[in-house]
């Protein structure tokens, strides 16, 4: 079973979400899995769409990786603070945000 949303595939259902959640629990040994009850399955985003317009201080996230946007360089490329840049290193470096979900960690505060 693929848990990637393909623009050409049928719209996901709650059963599909629960199946993917079950697979994730087993595959990654999760102790906690949160499913956003306000998310609308029938209005899923394409890979190039994000929740918020990117701005400094926002977070770019996708499965397995998260980093903080510092400064826009050009196009989809930002200077980012990457605390898990590989081999346990933290660094600031240019990175494309294509395919990442952009969220404002301060929203709701």
Describe the structure in your own words.
It is a single chain. The protein is α+β, with helices and mostly antiparallel strands and 109 residues long. It is built from 1 helix and 5 strands, in the order H-E-E-E-E-E. A 5-stranded antiparallel sheet has the order 4-3-2-1-5, with no helix packed on it. Strand 1 and strand 2 form a beta hairpin. The longest helix is centred in the first third of the chain and has 15 residues. It is globular, with a radius of gyration of 16 Å. It starts with 13 loop residues before the first helix and ends in a 6-residue tail after the last strand. The model has no long low-confidence stretch (mean pLDDT 77).
Give Rg in angstroms: 16 Å
**Assembly state here?**
single chain
User: What is the typical, i.e. mean, pLDDT?
Assistant: 77
Main pleated sheet = 5 strands, antiparallel
Strand proportion, as a percent range, falls in: 25-35%
Main β-sheet, spatial strand arrangement? 4-3-2-1-5
How far is the first residue's CA from the last residue's CA?
Answer: 38 Å
Number of helices: 1
What ranges have pLDDT less than 50 throughout 5 or more consecutive residues? none
User: How much helix, percentage-wise, in residues?
Assistant: 10-25%
SSE map:
Layout lengths: L13 H15 L30 E4 L2 E10 L2 E6 L8 E6 L4 E3 L6
Antiparallel strand pairs: 1-2, 1-5, 2-3, 3-4
Task: Please describe the structure with a list of short key phrases separated by commas or semicolons.
109 residues, alpha+beta, five-stranded antiparallel beta sheet, globular
What's this entry about, in short?
Helix content is 14%, strand content 27%.
């Amino acid at each position: 079973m693929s848990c990637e949303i393909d623009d050409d595939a049928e719209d996901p259902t709650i059963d599909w979400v629960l199946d993917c959640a079950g697979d994730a629990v087993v595959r990654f040994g999760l102790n906690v899995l949160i499913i956003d009850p306000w998310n609308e399955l029938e209005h899923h985003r394409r890979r190039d769409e994000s929740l918020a317009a990117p701005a400094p201080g926002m977070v770019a996230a996708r499965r397995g990786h998260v980093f903080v946007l510092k400064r826009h360089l050009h196009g989809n490329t930002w200077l980012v603070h990457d605390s898990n840049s590989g081999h346990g290193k933290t660094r600031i470096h240019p990175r494309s945000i294509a395919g990442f979900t952009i969220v404002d960690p301060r929203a709701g505060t």
